Amino acid sequence: MTDPSLDHADLTDPLASRRYFRKFEQILKHLTRAAAAMHLEGQLDKHAVKVLTGYLVQLNFSFQALSMKYLFSGQHSGRLSSHLTVDRHNSGFPLAAELLHMANDALQAHKHLAHLPNATQLKEQMVRTILSERRTPTRLQQALSQRLYYEELAKGQLFWAQNHPQCEWRGDAGQGRRRFMLHWAAYDSQVNLPVIYLAEVEDSGKIALLQDLARWPDVQEHLMAQSLAGLKLLTIARGFDEDFNCLHPKRLLRFHVGPMYSSTYTRQAGSLRRMLEAAGGTEGQDWVLAWTMEVLESEDVREQRVGWFSKAEREVFALDPFGGQAADTGATRTERAIILPQRPFQALAELDPPGFAEVRKFVVSPSGQVLQY
Question: 0.85 cut: is pTM over it?
Answer without folding.
Answer: yes
